[in-house]
Input
Amino acid sequence: MIVLGVDPGSRTTGYGVISGGDAGYSVLGCGVVRMKGSIALAERIGMIWTGLEEVIAATRPDCIAIETAFVGRNVRSAMILGQVRGAVIALAVRNGLPIREYAPREVKLAVTGYGSAGKEQVASMLSKLLPLGGKPMPSDATDALGIALCDLSRNGPAGPGGRVPLPSPGKKRKKQGWSDFVDGHPELIA
Output
């Protein structure tokens, strides 16, 4: 199963493509579509569409996983992010790809075992779970890889150890730290 994870943004949109099967995970590509803020929003959305369309053509994913919109205090930013997400969703539909959405907390929980993990913790855990070659990459790209990995843990094989279970929505969960996660998932430790 091949998943294209997308971390939408109006100036930088991250993407990460992961193939997951019985043999484990393989990163098929990751990076960012970066635009200058001085470019009109409509043109930036067009650039995101074109960039992601090229990624889809090159990697042929089975689905697209995208982060849900985070609504903070800035309504204008939320509306702009909604337009970018709409373009990504429309691109998925145009290419006949199912789209799955995950909250940032759900992605962090799937990758690190802790829903309030920081970007650095997510990137560190991804470097242990995926063959990234030790190259530094933009946080938007690692976020997108995390989104793809979250989808694979929910909907696809996770390699020899089987699927990585995520808690059921609405189920109360005991707060756990790193040591609890490591003890509970020895198959994920390199």
Q: What stands out?
A: The first helix runs from residue 41 to 59. The mean pLDDT is 84.
